[in-house]
Structure formats: structure tokens, C-alpha cells
Design a protein that fits this description.
The protein is α/β, with parallel strands linked by helices. The chain has an 8-stranded mixed β-sheet with strand order 2-1-3-4-6-5-7-8, with helices on both faces. The chain is built from 11 helices and 8 strands. Helix content is 32%, strand content 13%. Helix 1 packs across helix 7. Bound molecules: thiamine diphosphate (TPP) and iron/sulfur cluster (SF4). Iron/sulfur cluster binds next to helix 2 and helix 8.
């Protein structure tokens, strides 16, 4: 019997095609050869269930997709080195671990150096089919691990380094990093005063700095576009030498956002121009993902408590205009709109 207001009996479930028409994963409408790694039942589940990441954690999602793609690209021949940070802490409360791959916890600041050492050991012992991936948060990458990372780039060591950028030191309670955007409030930026939050004119763009080392491959990626993320990891693993992928991963706890908004926020970061998606080879930009529908930065900022001081009865129009100008500058610089 069909209940009033329903189109089907309870025993049947209405078919819902989530994300149809996009390039996101899970799209079973695509030809099998075009499907994402995660859409394949043979995926390795490299970062398995049971870990302790917060609900809606973009970093957990990004790592799972990235490492499964790297595994598939290398016939499951991967050793991963992980800097201290949320990804390491939530996945590996000793003696347990959610990782289903050979995985080493380095120090907070030396993941790139440890990965270089692992790659050298594999080379001298003749294990040339085993590949190395290093990974860390933006603090471990853009701040404390930056010297080791630059050395790895400069020597062109055979390592793919993945930075999961949640725009602060989340594991230790949301301290500012050099990837924290202007005006965002953290535990170590001004809490009160005329202009609370992070200041303008600081920070660094590590993908561009990586390009300045003329390494074989640099890319930015986002959990908003998981198929693109997998494509870039797969491409990186088809190359040798130093490679760098910088993945934007919303953090509900540190950003003060709803766990259900993680993908929406990641997409808005891309669609506003605040997080441009591009690829570069040997120091030259070779590809960019165009913005489909440009969104104003307010749409992105309003969903996050770390920016709430910009709104309210007296919006901070001057600083909002500066953030919009930053987004527009990215759009022009990377050619993100037709
Ligand atoms: C030398 C050193 N300093 C400080 C710490 C404490 N610490 C551990 S994780 C962490 C923050 C990690 O931040 P990030 O790299 O951005 O990764 P996230 O947790 O945000 O993913 C800090 C400060 C440490 N382990 N070692
Ligand atoms: S604090 Fe942020 S990065 Fe860390 S587990 Fe929670 S959501 Fe993920």
C-alpha cells in the first residue's frame, strides 16, 4: 500500500542520483574507464573506517581519496610518511591504526626529509617499484617543515608530497599558520579590537614556491572535485622526481562550520576564486579548472564562524572588499573565467 504523500511503498526506495552531471566521484553514470578510484569496488581503502576524525573532516576525505589513487597508480606499492598533525593523530592512536599501507610517523617538521631518506634507501636496495608519498598539514608543510620540503624539491628527490591545507594548526587547537587567510580568527590572532582576525599581507603560497623550484609537477586540488584530485595524484605517480600537491580541506572544528557544509565550502572556495585549481610542470602552468559559476566571497565566508566578525549589524565592508579583490586577482592571474 502507498501512504498518502508518498509516491512509493515503504518497501521500495526512491532512486536518487547524487551529483549527477558533475565530475565528482560516485557517478555510476560514467563509463567504467572514466569512473573514480572510489567508485571501484577494488579500491584499497588505504585509510580505513574507525579513525577519530571529526564529523565532516575534509582532511580525512582528501587523504582517503589521494592515497587510494596513489595505491592504484602504483600497483599498491607505496610507503607513506606522515608529519605530526590531525591526520596522524586521528588515524593512528598507538598501537592502533586505520592505515592499511606501510606508514611511518615522522616528526612534525621533517616528513619531507624522512621521505627523501626512504626514497634513497629504496633506490640503493633496488626496490625501484616501491614509491614514496609524504603528507602533512599546512602547519607541518608551509611553516615548520618548509626547509626540509624545499630541500626535497631542490634535490628533485623521488617523492610526492601532499599538503592537506585546512588553513591553521588544527590538531593543537586552531593556531594561525602561514596558510591562514586574512581576517580569519584563530586562537593566536587578535580576538578583539578594530580588526580582529588574521592580518592582510602575510602568509605564503607554497604551490607557487614549489613551482619556483622547477620540479616536474605541482598541482592544487580540492575535496570539492574528487575526480580531479584523483586524476592529479594518478598523474603525479606516473612521474618521477619531486612532486607537490596542495589539497584544500575544510575543517568544521577550526572553521566553525557545519560538518554537512564541508563539500559546499570547498566548492565555494573554488567558485569564488579564493582557491584556484591549477597544474604546473617544470615551473610552467599547464592547466587550470575554470570557474563554472562565479560566487561572491560573502557566500563562502558567511558559512564559517571564524569570519563571523565581518558580518552582523555593521558588516566590515572594507575588509570584505579586500578579500573580494584577492579572489578577483586570483581569477585574473590564473585565467579562471572565460
Ligand atoms: C616540534 C614540534 N612542535 C610542536 C608540536 C605540536 N604539534 C603537533 S601537531 C601540531 C599542529 C599541526 O598542524 P598542521 O600541520 O596544520 O596539521 P593539522 O593538524 O591542521 O592537520 C603541533 C603544533 C610538535 N609535535 N612538534
Ligand atoms: S580538527 Fe579539523 S582537520 Fe582535525 S580531525 Fe577535526 S575536522 Fe579534521
Amino acid at each position: 500500500m502507498i501512504e498518502p504523500g508518498r509516491t512509493m511503498p515503504y518497501s521500495m526506495q526512491e532512486v536518487k542520483f547524487y551529483q549527477t552531471g558533475t565530475f565528482t566521484v560516485g557517478n555510476r553514470l560514467l563509463d567504467e574507464t572514466e569512473r573514480a578510484v572510489q567508485a571501484n569496488m577494488q579500491r584499497t581503502n588505504s585509510l580505513n573506517s574507525g579513525h577519530r576524525a571529526c564529523q565532516g573532516c575534509g582532511e580525512a576525505l582528501g587523504a582517503r581519496y589521494a592515497i587510494d589513487a596513489a595505491m592504484r597508480a602504483t600497483n599498491n606499492q607505496i610507503i607513506a610518511v606522515n608529519a605530526t598533525g590531525c591526520l596522524e593523530v586521528f588515524s593512528t592512536p598507538y598501537p592502533e591504526s586505520s592505515w592499511q599501507i606501510p606508514w611511518i610517523h615522522s616528526l612534525f617538521g621533517n616528513a619531507a626529509a624522512v621521505a627523501s631518506g626512504v626514497a634513497a634507501a629504496l633506490r640503493v636496495t633496488g626496490h625501484t617499484n616501491t614509491r614514496v608519498v609524504a603528507q602533512g598539514g599546512d602547519g607541518g608543510t608551509t611553516d615548520i617543515g618548509f626547509g626540509c620540503l624545499s630541500g626535497m624539491f631542490e634535490r628533485n628527490d623521488d617523492v610526492l608530497y601532499i599538503c592537506y591545507d585546512n588553513e591553521a594548526y588544527m590538531n593543537t587547537g586552531v593556531q594561525r599558520s602561514s596558510a591562514t587567510p586574512p581576517t580569519a580568527r584563530t586562537a593566536t590572532t587578535m580576538a578583539v579590537g578594530k580588526e580582529p582576525g588574521n592580518v592582510f599581507g602575510t602568509g605564503k603560497n607554497v604551490p607557487l614556491i614549489a613551482m619556483a623550484h622547477f620540479i616536474p609537477y605541482v598541482a592544487t586540488a580540492s575535496v570539492a572535485n574528487l575526480h580531479d584530485l584523483e586524476f592529479k595524484v594518478t598523474k603525479a605517480m606516473s612521474m618521477h622526481g619531486a612532486r607537490y600537491i596542495h589539497i584544500h580541506v575544510p575543517c568544521p572544528l577550526g572553521w566553525g562550520s557545519a560538518p554537512a557544509d564541508t563539500i559546499k565550502l570547498a566548492r565555494l572556495a573554488v567558485e569564488t576564486g579564493l582557491f584556484p585549481l591549477f597544474e604546473a610542470e617544470d615551473g610552467e602552468i599547464t592547466g587550470r579548472t575554470k570557474i563554472r559559476r562565479k560566487a561572491p566571497v560573502e557566500d563562502y565566508l558567511k558559512l564559517q564562524k571564524r569570519f563571523s566578525h565581518l558580518f552582523g549589524p555593521k558588516p566590515d565592508d572594507a575588509r570584505l572588499a579586500r578579500i573580494q579583490a584577492n579572489a578577483d586577482r586570483n581569477i585574473a592571474k590564473f585565467g579562471l573565467l572565460d
